[in-house]
Structure formats: C-alpha cells, structure tokens
C-alpha cells in the first residue's frame, strides 16, 4: 500500500462522528483513548471538549479527571454558542432527543457552529438515526453480533460494489474484544484509507484495501 500522511487519517473539525455498538462492546474504552489522544487524533486539536451524557457511569469521573467539562442531559443552543473548534461528545442520549433535533444537529448545527460531534449510541440502526448516518463523516463500528444484518445493510449503502470487501474488513477489525472499524466517509479522505483500525498512537495503523484482481 502507498504511504500516507498522518493528517490523512485524523478526524477533522468540524465533522460528525457516530460511535456505535452494543453495551459491553468497548465504546467507552475507545472514547477514553480518543480523549486521551485528542490533540493528535483530531485536526485541528479541539479548543475545548464537552462530554454530555444521558446516564451517569464510572466513565464520568474518569473524563472529569482529564479536565473535561461534563454535562448531564442534552446541551442547549446557548451552551454551544461561541464554541468553535469544540469537540462535543453526546453519550447515550438517543432517547432524550427527537428525530428532528438529530437531523438539525447533524445537517446544520455542527457545521454552523464549527464543532466536531461524537454521537455515542447503541442504536445505529434506530429509525431516528437513518438521516444521521447519511450525514456522518465517520462511523466507528464496534463488534455487534446482534447487528450483523444492519452492518451488512450499511455496507450495501456505502460500499455497494465492494460489499464482500467491506464485510471482510469489518470481521477482521472486530475479531478481538473491543475491536472496531473506522469507516471514513469524509470528502477529503483518500479512497484507499476509508476503512481502518488500530488508529491510536500506541498501535500500528491497519488500513483495509481490496484485493487486486489478476
């Protein structure tokens, strides 16, 4: 595979990121690592990080210990004003918001406010999330045995002519506990870097590329 610049695989601000997987799949572990390395993994580095959650969990004090502002419930528009360059995490808030709210958040607010949203959910294939999936720049898929059909449908929509390649990449990326596949749908991403895993600084980045037919 061709070499690539680190900037090619950084999460860009502003953008929409969905981090999806069932309970126990490793979403929190992934999120804590991302927050620990946010200045390296995001471009530009976030000016501020806000963590909004639906239900208190042991992750909240861990995140607060990083000096990150936490917020119980859905942030108001006023909370997000003048926050350009902010990384906003909304964790387990799918049941707290309407479909219209999500559509506006993903299609208008993040770009208008100049923020990066990470929406953490167990319900990637919930009816509310249909439009959000189409507006996501990145989707991070954790291992989900119960959602194999949903993952396949997602692959069919976004990799229609390479579905076997997409599913093989997903299986390889999630074969271990807490495994994940980053699906990069941002317009600036080189085509050969769209599927990857092991993205953290202590890991060796793995990029999945289709086999060349001979």
Automatic annotation (TrEMBL):
This is AAA+ ATPase domain-containing protein. It comes from Panagrolaimus sp. PS1159. The lineage of its organism: Eukaryota, Metazoa, Ecdysozoa, Nematoda, Chromadorea.
């Amino acid at each position: 595979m061709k070499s690539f610049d680190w900037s090619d695989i950084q999460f860009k601000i502003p953008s929409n990121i969905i981090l999806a997987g069932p309970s126990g799949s490793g979403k929190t572990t992934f999120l804590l690592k991302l927050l620990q390395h946010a200045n390296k993994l995001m471009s530009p580095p976030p000016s501020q990080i806000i963590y909004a959650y639906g239900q208190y969990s042991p992750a909240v004090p861990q995140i607060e210990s990083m000096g990150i502002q936490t917020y119980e419930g859905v942030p108001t528009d006023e909370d997000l004003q003048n926050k350009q360059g902010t990384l906003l995490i909304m964790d387990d808030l799918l049941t707290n918001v309407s479909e219209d709210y999500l559509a506006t958040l993903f299609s208008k607010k993040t770009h208008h406010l100049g923020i990066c949203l990470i929406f953490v959910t167990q319900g990637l294939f919930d009816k509310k999330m249909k439009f959000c999936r189409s507006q996501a720049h990145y989707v991070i898929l954790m291992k989900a045995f119960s959602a194999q059909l949903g993952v396949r449908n997602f692959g069919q929509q976004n990799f229609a002519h390479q579905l076997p390649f997409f599913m093989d990449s997903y299986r390889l990326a999630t074969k271990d506990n807490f495994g994940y596949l980053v699906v990069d749908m941002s317009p600036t991403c080189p085509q050969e870097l769209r599927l990857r895993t092991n993205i953290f600084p202590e890991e060796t980045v793995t990029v999945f590329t289709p086999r060349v037919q001979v």
